[in-house]
Amino acid sequence: MKYQELIQFEPINEVVKFSRTGEAAYQKDLIRTFVFSRAYREALIPVISKNLDYSRQGEKFGIQVVGNYGTGKSHLMSLVSLIAEDASLLGLVESEQPREELANIAGKFKVLRFELGNTQSLWEVMTYKLETWLADNGVEFEFAPHEKKSFGEQLQQMMAEFEEQYPDKGLLVVIDEMLAYLKSRSEATKLNEDLMVLQALGQSCDNTKFRIIFGVQELIYQSAEFQFASETLQKVGDRFRDLTITKEDVSYVVKNRLLKKDEHQKAKIRKHLQQFVHLFSDMHSRLEEYVELFPVHPSYFENFQKIRKGKSQREILKTLSAHFEKIMGQEAPTDNPGLITYDDYWVDIHNSPDLMSDPDIRK
To answer: What is each CA distance from 336 to 114, 259, 275, in whole angstroms?
Structure first.
């Protein structure tokens, strides 16, 4: 019995690229392939929808999406922003509960997406991106030097011009790689100014139709490099809602996209694994989890989360996709469970020139 007979494998071969979100086929694929775990259905999507929906009463906040590289931050931000921009894409959402939540923001926004990879101040980057984007959308507006007017005042003036042109729309800005950018600006005076800009962006979400979502690998407020700016960080934290993508959410994607199984396939896997239950301390109590994730050992995700080095952490789903592609045509073993375990990642580390160039990892 081959692995390909036991699972319905759909590979994930590339990282989501903001630069391609203008392509119709790419948009549809991003939304069609999104898998909603319980946390997405019951927490993440409702919080995002509540804070983006400018027709709702109550205080509004910016959104900070937290998750290790490769956990799906960019995919989540792309899903939300594409539907916010184009209501016709809502029908591609397969899960009913998220679809109902996202209907509250569908088609209500014009959207600017970009990744940060600059050395300029955050205000310089934001104003350049916004001025260029506004001009492309028929809105004439120029930001004044920030010494003359506060960040918040200028954002309000910008939104007044925007809403005059688009009275029935909000403006949603989606930014990736925020933490890496801020770490490159960790000099005290530079960082403090950037954090003040973030605070103003979050504040603008509450008093205008402006909204912002950005992605980070860890909570900005917990990063050791920024603790000298703890007071300013707290003010930023007051203006944003933090949404964390966990290892459980990643394993859910693996179960329901990479490794879909019908009940007949699950029965075969269950019968196969029951031969080895007595050899594992936890397999009996977690048998259904082993079945759902087969052929990945559940602890793979727990250990992968601990890896802090190298770009390969961006690609947990790609890494597993590569493993599955290798074994799909192979026979499942009869003398062992045939699981992909976290020690298999040793081979990926050893074969990565980037990782092996790090003397600590090489040693």
So the answer is: 47, 20, 9
What Å distances lie between residue 327 and 86, 283, 335, 338, CA to CA?
A: 40, 23, 16, 10
- Give Cα separations from 134 to 112, 128, 200, 253, 330 (angstroms): 9, 10, 19, 36, 54
Q: What is the pLDDT of residues 244-262, one digit of tens each?
A: 887 666 777 777 777 889 9
Best CA proximity match to 290, nearest among 255, 258, 321? 255
Crossing angle of helices 122-136 and 188-207, rounded to 10°? 40
The C-alpha angle with vertex 181 and arms to 177 and 182, in degrees rounded to 5, equals: 120
Largest CA-CA distance found in the chain, in angstroms, rounded? 74
Residue whose tokens read 């394993």: 251
Task: Indicate the DSSP class of residue 340.
Answer: B
Tens-digit pLDDT profile for residues 170-215: 999 999 878 778 888 767 678 888 889 999 999 999 989 999 999 8
**pTM for the whole structure:** 0.74
Inter-residue contact 325 to 362 (CB < 8 Å): no
78 closest CA partner among 174, 187, 178: 174
| Single-letter residue type at 145 | P
